[in-house]
Amino acid sequence: MSRSSKRRPRSVISEPAWVRLALIALALVFLGLFLLAPLFVVFAEALQGGIGAYVEAFTEPDALAAIRLTLITAAIAVPLNIVFGVAAAWAIAKFEFAGKSLLVTFIDLPFSVSPVIAGLIYVLLFGAHGWFGPWLVANDVEIIFAVPGIVIATIFVTFPFVARELIPLMQEQGNEEEEAALSLGAGGWQTFRRVTLPNIKWGLIYGVLLCNARAMGEFGAVSVVSGHIRGETNTMPLHVEILYNEYNFTAAFAIASLLALLALVTLALKTALEWRYGAELAAARRL
Predict the structure, then answer these.
(1) 227 in helix, strand or coil?
(2) C-alpha dihedral over 80, 82, 87, 90, to 10 degrees?
(3) What is the reported pLDDT for 282?
(4) CB of 70 within 8 A of CB of 236?
(5) Backbone angles phi, psi at 211, to 5 degrees
(6) Which end of the chain is more exposed for a tag (fewer CB within 10 A), N or C?
């Protein structure tokens, strides 16, 4: 065996110290410039006018309506996505059927389609001149430029998050435990509640956190179907845009800081889950 064949592959950790330090410094600089600095600016601008102006931005009626609508939308969209995500993951992981690969592809559709396009599609379907528009108008049903349209658009852009977390986790776990429970006399619902659900609970919570964060921060699809009606169809991201366009920077950044706080809370919960249940969550993210 030649000397070159005995040479061991060069490891990354054998790189000179200056290379490692340079890479770490580059990552930290990038993180600081593009993540931490904007986050700092949001809170700095929000508090520029003082605590009084900051609090006043949240007590204004249109701001309260935007916060309320954002929470209502998330409260409707997230539970529906939990039901859909669990059902889809159960069907894909536990059964073999024609079109299974197509269903998995469709679940990823919102990741590949621009939210603005999704909003336009719903306008074409449910708008006054859309496919179902005449029937909706005749029956006095409002979807576009109303709360139902905002909820539908939010469901569309968020429905992959729960399903994508559960599908690989349930596929990896297999059917052995469920089959054992059924062979011992457990019913279907009892098997799901006592065997399946405990096995997927952390992946489910992880998916719900991501889904909720996206539901509250969604802008593109909601902007198209909302109509931007003050106090009625503006969610928090839309309200921030309106305030900013009106040069009301303090109020705009105050509402934006609330969104940032919600994102930070979600990130903290996500990190805690990864720290405590890292192996199980890593399995959930694998395809």
Answers:
(1) coil
(2) 170
(3) 60
(4) yes
(5) -65, -45
(6) N
End-to-end Cα, the chain, rounded Å: 40
Write the pLDDT tens digit of every residue in 32-55: 888 889 888 888 988 888 888 888
236: three-class secondary structure by DSSP: helix
* Contact present, 152 and 115 (Cβ < 8 Å): no
The kind and range of the H/E element at 96 are: none
Tens digit of each residue's pLDDT (9 = 90 or more) over 193-239: 888 888 888 888 888 988 998 999 889 899 999 988 888 899 999 99
pTM of the model: 0.81
Within 10 angstroms of residue 42's Cβ, the number of other Cβ atoms is 19
Higher pLDDT, 287 or 71: 71
CA distance 221 to 135: 23
Q: Is 217 helix (H, G, I), strand (E, B) or coil?
A: helix
Compute φ and ψ for 147, nearest 5 degrees: -60, -40
